[in-house]
Amino acid sequence: MAPLLVLRCCSVEFLKTFSRANVFLMRGASIFCAAQTQLPVHSQRGSTLSVQKMFLFSGKCTADTRLDGKTAIVTGSNTGIGKCTANELAKRGARVIMACRSLEKAETAADDIRTSLKDVKDAGEVVIRQLDLSSLKSVRKCAQEILDNESAIHLLINNAGVMMCPRQLTEDGYELQFATNHLGHYLFTLLLLPRIIKSAPARIINLSSLAHTWGDGSMHFEDINLEKGYSATGAYGRSKLANILFTTELAKRLQGANITNVNTYAVHPGVVDTELSRHFDSIIPGTAWLYQRVGGLFIKSPLQGAQTTLYCALDKKCERETGLYYADCKVKSTARRAKNPETAKELWTQSWKLVGLDENYNPFQPA
Fold first, then answer.
1. Which positions are catalytic?
2. Please, which domain of life does this record's source organism belong to (predicted)?
3. For residue 102, is it within any domain?
4. Minimal CA–CA distance to 158: which of 56, 32, 246?
5. What gap in Å lies between CA 299 and CA 270, rounded to an integer?
């Protein structure tokens, strides 16, 4: 048996010399790996070292909850964490709505899931809907299609996102990462919320990240499109901070409306082998390759990355918890910037205006 391999990274700043990128910043992270056998080589795309037998620090959802008769929505579920999440929920009997930007990719992924579950007793149905979170028009259309066709929504997993892309504005005129990772999910959630409340008990899970510590910690309400200065990592960090602030504020407002059986969760999945790294080379050429090859020692598989999402969706231990932040299937503390109630309140107010919700709309009224 190989000896215990301990890799302790008290302040990991992978590729620190590339200060402009800060791609692998993992402040305060301690990574413990145990090698019991020779490292297996595996990759979602043929390049990454998988250390599935080494991730002692990677939490695992052990809940045996069935989801028969339940409806779940997973955004961005044609690949990576979202696809693994959709597969597991369908395996447990849920009707899973895969809300994805590309219908072609979504259908291919849905077929993969159906094939993998063909011999699974009482597996649930998998359906697809088109959802481009960078387009508020698309968000409204998808939400309405779901409301027209689904009498209940028990799980909403806001999984989709973009990461560290060059500065772009959406068709609505908003910075792409903030628009896709926060504004799109904010609007999608609030449009579906009356049906979710009607279907309670229900859970809403927002995928955030340890990257909420990146950047200067400001939401830049006075410069929402970051025209005065743009950093791909800082913009991504802002969007992930927004995910946490939205989670906590939504929990607070649900409780204020005396709705106690709809809970919210913010999740850090870990550093995962997904397609989110596709924009790395636009920051510094070669970093995507380095992330996949050298970073493989620290990267989880999509299935491992889905575990905390599944824990928050399924486990009874957290069914009475709300508004908290989770990593490796445990409640974790966020950075101080994510604990400011005034910032969370202002983000809600500004987001309401940015997505164009009517001032008389009440998302807390069951429908």
1. 236
2. Eukaryota
3. yes
4. 246
5. 8
pLDDT of residue 296: 55
Structural domain total, the chain: 1
Kind and range of the H or E element at 343?
helix 341-354
Q: Are 125 and 95 in contact (CB under 8 A)?
A: yes
Q: Do the domain assignments include residue 168? A: yes
361 in any annotated domain: no
Instruction: Provide the residue range defining the domain that includes 202.
Output: 61-355
- Which residues of the chain are under the pLDDT cut of 50? 1-56, 276, 279
- Residue 225 near residue 327 (C-beta atoms within 8 A): no
Strand partners, 11: 27
* CATH number reported for the structural domain that contains residue 135 in this entry: 3.40.50.720
pLDDT in tens, 171-225: 999 999 999 999 999 999 999 999 999 999 999 999 999 999 999 999 999 999 9
Cβ–Cβ < 8 Å for 158, 142: no
Write down the pLDDT at residue 36: 32
pLDDT at 27: 35
Q: What is the pLDDT of residue 353?
A: 98
Residue 156 in 3-state DSSP? Answer: strand
